[in-house]
Amino acid sequence: MTFSWLKGHGTENDFVLLPDHDGSLHGELDPQFVAALCDRRRGIGADGVLRVTTPAALGLESDAAWFMDYRNADGSLSEMCGNGVRVFARHLIEEGLVTDDDFLVGTRDGDKRVVVDGDQIRVDMGRYTTGGTSKVTTAEGTTLEAREVHTGNPHAVAFVDDLSSAGSLLTEPEFDPIVYPEGVNIEFVERRAAGHVAMRVHERGSGETRSCGTGACAVAIAAALADGHDAAHPRYRIDVPGGTVLVDLTIDGHVHLTGPAVIVASGTMEWRA
């Protein structure tokens, strides 16, 4: 099979993009193929795959012209990816597939409004929900209390005095499967200043990544709740290993994510695996 591909990243959370506008080239998008593409030794290497297609090609209803079919690095489906949708939007702009700087992108978590302003892209990630707390345990055996937050994907957010307390995130931290039956992204958060935190994350299906957009949103929400801003609409700066993003909590209960996204390479591949 011969196909075109692109490589891009948002704060070093990197993705392979697969243009497949009518859905006929990659079909069901085999999970083993996705995992092989994402393998950093046997494939192109990435934290996930973004198929560039349309809602109609997948038999979905949407007001968006384009649909981000996102898969984790292990080939599993994921509802949403905050960094991925910015990379997806950058591709649409650069290829002339959209003509306005304000447009919708379809996702499994619904249509997302995207606004492009130079090198920064803002995404209305939609409404979020929060739950109670449960326990997460690091690979080194440290047990922490974590807040449940849903921002398209499920998250467990734990605050620590120092990010090194998270230990190795090559191994998935333990979590409560009753609270998170479909798995969970787990964030460890260190406070830096008022409205300013840093985070590390273990993403379900991908492992530790350099950044996580829905995770940054979840961290800002958990921090706002802890800071007593649940009725306000604050902005948080979130430092991730791959850079910095900004998260705004709006008065109408939405969360907005702003950060950079770039396409760094493209090509055509004859897949021989």
TrEMBL record:
Protein name from the UniProt record: Diaminopimelate epimerase
Site, as annotated: Could be important to modulate the pK values of the two catalytic cysteine residues: H155, E203
PANTHER family assigned to the protein according to its UniProt record, in alphabetical order: DIAMINOPIMELATE EPIMERASE (PTHR31689:SF0), DIAMINOPIMELATE EPIMERASE, CHLOROPLASTIC (PTHR31689)
Function: Catalyzes the stereoinversion of LL-2,6-diaminopimelate (L,L-DAP) to meso-diaminopimelate (meso-DAP), a precursor of L-lysine and an essential component of the bacterial peptidoglycan.
Gene Ontology molecular functions: diaminopimelate epimerase activity
Pathway(s): Amino-acid biosynthesis; L-lysine biosynthesis via DAP pathway; DL-2,6-diaminopimelate from LL-2,6-diaminopimelate: step 1/1
Subunit and interaction comment: Homodimer.
EC number: 5.1.1.7
Active site per database record: C81, C81 (proton donor), C212 (proton acceptor)
Chain's gene name: dapF
